[in-house]
Amino acid sequence: TWLPKEPGKFKVVVLNDDTTPVEFVVAMFIQVFRHSQANALELTMQIHNNGSAVAGIYTHEIAEQKIADATNLARSNGFPLILKAEAE
């Protein structure tokens, strides 16, 4: 019997830049990805120190929506923050 394949999971990766302030990134993690303040700060420091961090792992549709929401939030505040989806 044929079974549908499980939908793949995608990591939403947030990349470091020299413009977007720490406070904004922390707020974005809380607002868009529903992280706690402590977790958001930890992820933000990971981006600062390592160049990127995984905001979460989602189905493709949800990953794309989260990226769109976070990118729109960044742009509306004048920041060049970049997020991307990577297949897990």
Chart the SSEs and their pairings:
Blueprint: E1 9-15, H1 22-33, H2 37-50, E2 52-59, H3 60-76, E3 82-87
Antiparallel strand pairs: 1-2, 1-3
Helix pairs in contact: 1-2, 1-3
Give a written overview of the molecule.
The protein starts with 8 loop residues before the first strand and ends with a strand. 49% of the residues lie in helices and 24% in strands. It contains three helices and three strands, in the order βααβαβ. α1 packs across α2 and α1 runs antiparallel to α3. The radius of gyration is 14 Å and the shape is elongated. The protein has a three-stranded antiparallel beta sheet. The protein has 88 residues and is α+β, with helices and mostly antiparallel strands.
The DSSP helix count reads: 3
Low-pLDDT stretches: none
How far the N terminus sits from the C terminus, by CA atoms, comes to: 27 Å
**Major sheet strand order:** 2-1-3
Output mean pLDDT. Answer: 95
Proportion of strand residues:
15-25%
Helix content: 40-55%
Q: Largest sheet, described in full? A: 3 strands, antiparallel
Structural class: alpha+beta
Please provide the count of β strands. Answer: 3
What is the radius of gyration computed over CA atoms, rounded to a whole number of angstroms? 14 Å
- Compressed to H and E, one letter per element, the order equals EHHEHE
Overall geometry comes to elongated
